[in-house]
Amino acid sequence: MGQTHGARVALFLFSEGWIGDLKMMLDTYDIVLIGGGIVGVSTAWKLKQRYPDSAVLLIEKESSLAHHQTGRNSGVIHAGVYYAPGSLKADFCKRGAAQTIAFCQEHGLPYEQCGKLLVATDIIEYEQMEALEKRCIQNKIEIERLSEDELKKREPNIIGLAALLVPATGITDFTKITLKMAERFVESGGAIQLGTEVISLKETDDSVQIHLGANTITTRYIVVCGGLMADRLAKMMQIDIDFQIIPFRGEYYRLSPRHNQIVSHLIYPIPDPKLPFLGVHLTRMIDGSVTVGPNAVLGWKREGYARINLNLEDSIEMMTFPGFWKVVLNHLTSGLSEIKDSFYKPGYLNRVRKYCPSLTIEDLYPYPAGIRAQAVKRDGSLVHDFLFAESERSFHVCNAPSPAATSAIPIGEYLCEKVTKKFRLI
What we know:
The protein has 2 domains: 8-68 and 175-242 and 385-423, FAD/NAD(P)-binding domain; 113-170 and 246-377, D-Amino Acid Oxidase, subunit A, domain 2 (D-Amino Acid Oxidase, Chain A, domain 2, 2-Layer Sandwich). It has 11 helices and 24 strands. The protein has helices at 38-50, 88-107, 123-138, 148-154, 174-187, 230-236, 312-319, 322-330, 332-343, 345-353, 408-423, and strands at residues 8-10, 23-25, 28-34, 56-59, 76-77, 111-112, 116-120, 144-147, 162-166, 170-172, 191-193, 200-203, 208-212, 215-224, 243-250, 253-255, 266-269, 281-284, 290-293, 297-298, 364-366, 370-377, 387-391, 394-399. The strands form 6 sheets. Strands 3, 4, 11, 12, 13, 14, 23 and 24 form an 8-stranded mixed sheet that branches. Strands 8-9-7-17 form a 4-stranded mixed sheet. A 4-stranded antiparallel sheet has the order 18-19-16-21, with no helix packed on it. It is globular.
């Protein structure tokens, strides 16, 4: 793979205030990555490490990196408690937690291993907690079971019948991690073009043409980490897929600053195994604040972060997909409950008061929402693990669920290996 040449000069700006060197904006590349979240940036960085002489470009449609899922999550470095033994999620998460912490240490980025407490508040949750404990043992994750009294000693403001302590869980700032990876990618000769939306993709026998509005660039191969737009980008390549991205908005609150010391660990409920989400939890943030959330409300706009959102194209596309109605019917009761508590603040509060009863309505301050890109199959099944699609000259990450941020470094390494084998790169 050799360096190609072009004629246009572009200046790449980054949201942390530093400016990359002036780069030659090429007409032809060896590899183009689409998507500037943490998975796309990690993969670009790893590919440039593997192929230092290749021309590698990362394209992001927003004016900054980590704009969507990466920059709108709880900032938790997960230990891998919930994931089926042997799954990609379990493997990536355990390795990713260690590599994320090592990356933070190497670059002076903020992190803290404060640990997580999974709190059982009734007999049903206690039995589910025992099942989680067995899964932790299978995944070789260090845990400690706490009695009601032991829980009270560690967390005086939290109540429960028992709890599981997961010491390895931590917190960080994934936006800062993404920007540092991007900096290393650019320093090694990679290029990043922000504010550039992909309009269409056309694959030929020897290249892929990427249409960017008034401009078109050509690349030998593309790697797509499209997040909320993953299905649409796959369809642009004429790939026959059997899933669609359904957006779920996760709404948060921030606790009153007087409660910044209310807990010393992350406090999670025992999740309902019938549901794909973890439930409303108390999260210590790396800036010292404490957040409550998220819930999981069906979104009617893929990038709609306001309380009320509607995009006609997104909504019609979703409602004409057979899997959407099957998901709605399968989770109708819980879905209606999520919608109710989204608008009824006391209902939302009760979700956290079951293990932290001292909180009041006045303690819940506004906080930005996030959107989870959930891949759903045509039969209505939710895709819980990583999902990929491909054509002759493209490789697509179609579903990168939590803990994708924690796992970004091993995911980047994995994709680098997959791309190397698929495209027979030298």
